[in-house]
Amino acid sequence: MDVISNLTMDERRRALLILLVMALVGLTFAAAGHGDPIAVHGALVLVLSLALAFPVMGHLYDPEPSIERFNAYYDDPSKVGVILTFVWAAFAMFVGDWVAWLMVEPTWTTGSAWSSFGRLRPVHTTGVIFGFGGNGLIATSFYVMQRTCRVRLPDQLSPWFVLIGYNLFCILAVTGYLLGITQSKEYAEPEWYADLWLVIVWVTYFVLYMRTLARREEPHIYVANWYYMAFILVVAMLHIVNNLAVPVSFLSAKSHSLFSGVQDALTEWWYGHNAVAFFLTAGFLGMMYYYLPIRAGRPIFSYRLSIISFWGITFMYMWVGSHHLHHTALPQWVQTLGMTFSLVLLVPSWGSAANALLTLNGAWHKVRDDATLRFMMIAAVFYGLTTFEGSFMAIRSVNALSHYTDWTVGHVHAGALGWVAMITFGALYASIPWLWKRERMYSPALVEVHFWLALSGTAVYVFALWNAGIIQGLMWRTYTENGNLAYTFLDSVVAMRPYYIARALGGLLYLLGALAGCLNLYLTIRFAAPATEAASRKPLRDGLDDAATQPAE
Ligand code: HEM
Ligand code: HEM
Ligand SMILES: [Cu+2]
């Protein structure tokens, strides 16, 4: 329970207060909301907050932590965040592969409602994007902001509040779907009370970032921080607007959106696309711009280009959400606007992909020998590939073929498996020895195995669905000589079977890789040799950071 004793007495008191208030809120919902699924969530919040409150109470009067703490960065929340990232990866990818097998064999389920496809699918998407991706972003952002600002986090309580509060949101979301609680907006499924909670957590996160920046000892704000900040700020904006809703009653999980009809659709896809842009892209670019140069031991190829790309994507991404609504009731000009900005967006996107790859010039021998750096290199390649594909699919006539088909799902996973997850695994494998002060990962061979499983899994998954999607699209628009459709819809479903099997197998490879990562994390924490004095990263000042995260021009 070192973690609790390391908090100051004042922080422990405040933590206890927050937990007790939460327990009370949980109790209220549990008791008053009977007959409504919200009561289950009330009970869950009650149990979880008490489970944390007891150990805090037990250590409430421990002595104040040593003043020495100010000589080091505050990394405990990052460590827990890294572990949570792996846990969510294993869980959510397992569910992803289950969902993939359900599309091969729909009977591979328990028969009860919680395990139906419609409930498991959002468990997968929320689990991977918010559970796995979000924890990876939070854990690395705490790490990166301290190093690039050369300052310790301003206090020890708010990072825990952000990390634990955020995971509570993810748990409410995922258990909610299993219970049938959903707002039915893709990627924004959690109901109003979970959304409100996330607003509190997220604003704390933003304030924490700003406070750290304000205290920084490094005059320059390194580019990674711009990307992380855009991620935090824009996600707050999207989340609040898209989730504006009126609950049926304060003791019911159900709510109704403020928007309806085509306005609802456009708000949802403004949110949905920018979730891709700022959650799945800007945040991970922040990660890439810190970890890739450091791991390669080289400064960014062009610092100026990284800034131009930043403002390019920040400005252009905002306008492209309507490419999800081609050929719908949305006015034609709004569709054209979305398509046009999607095309221009390719320029800043490739700016970052090229910048990352050119940074590796002179370090290709390291890419060959070091699977961690190779994860990051492949991530940059897939980032370039996915954005090219996205811009292409945003063209209205191309979208007429691709929309509703598995091509979209293939595009999603080229980005998700190839870019988002690869850069995360690369960043985690770089951070783990630094965080736990180990010489290196316990088994570099296992990192190598993970890399090849991940790469082959992605390739199988994405190739399978490219084929599947184009075949579907073509079958749906093939006519016979006398003008009838050549295939029934069912024909196209039957034609998908081999591709769905391939996808599920590719996903299995990917999942096995993630499990290898979990094992390696455990072995590293438990058994890896401690870093020697010279190799361990010095507190507060740190030679490599200096070299690699300063403007080259
Ligand atoms: C083991 C790895 C994975 C497997 C087997 C897998 C499988 C699946 C399956 C079967 C679907 C449903 C497709 C459908 O409804 O037709 C899906 C959807 C989705 N997955 Fe994954 N997935 C994996 C990893 C990931 C990761 C790491 C991410 C994100 C970081 C991700 C993000 C998504 C998203 C956003 C969707 C919704 C796609 C859409 O609506 O077009 N997945 N996944
Ligand atoms: C320049 C960059 C990009 C553009 C212009 C773009 C464009 C598109 C287009 C046109 C669609 C298909 C919409 C439809 O027919 O329904 C789509 C779907 C999607 N893209 Fe991208 N994309 C880009 C990058 C990415 C990246 C890097 C990811 C990340 C991981 C990603 C994740 C997704 C997801 C999750 C969907 C599925 C949404 C859904 O229907 O559930 N995209 N994108
Ligand atoms: Cu989009």
Automatic annotation (TrEMBL):
It is found in: Cell membrane. Its cofactor is heme; Cu(2+); heme b. It catalyses: 4 Fe(II)-[cytochrome c] + O2 + 8 H(+)(in) = 4 Fe(III)-[cytochrome c] + 2 H2O + 4 H(+)(out). Pfam families: COX1. It is a multi-pass membrane protein. The keyword Membrane applies. The chain crosses the membrane at residues 40-61, 82-104, 124-145, 157-180, 192-214, 226-250, 270-292, 301-320, 340-363, 375-396, 416-436, 445-466, 500-523. Its EC number is 7.1.1.9. Keywords: Cell membrane, Copper, Electron transport, Heme, Iron, Membrane, Metal-binding, Oxidoreductase, Respiratory chain, Translocase, Transmembrane, Transmembrane helix, Transport. Binds 2 heme groups per subunit, denoted as high- and low-spin. Binds 1 copper ion per subunit, denoted as copper B. This is cytochrome-c oxidase. The lineage of its organism: Bacteria, Pseudomonadati, Pseudomonadota, Alphaproteobacteria, Hyphomicrobiales.
